[in-house]
Amino acid sequence: MVFQTDQSVGAHGAAGVRVAAVETDDAEPRLKYQPDIPTPSRKAPTRATWRFRRRHDTEFTDALEAARSYEANLGAMDISKDMQNQTLRILA
User: Fold this and answer.
1) Which of 62, 70, 76, 58 is nearest to 11 (CA)?
2) I need a surface site. Which of 11, 35, 37, 77 has the fewest CB within 10 A?
């Protein structure tokens, strides 16, 4: 997923986050021989499994970006909640 700031979602000067695009990885899966994996039946003599090529650095970066966006939104919500509580204390 590709994230983008969304000014319409934020409150009190903070911007929200939305998904701008969903991209797919077109890398071909690879066949990997793994002799330690048991075969499902005696009719299947090969011990190969399909593995998808993963870009671990990209996945890690995406997960980090999502976590930081989530934390930023939580921080903005906490600030908004504190401001509302202070307003209620002043009016009470």
Assistant:
1) 76
2) 35
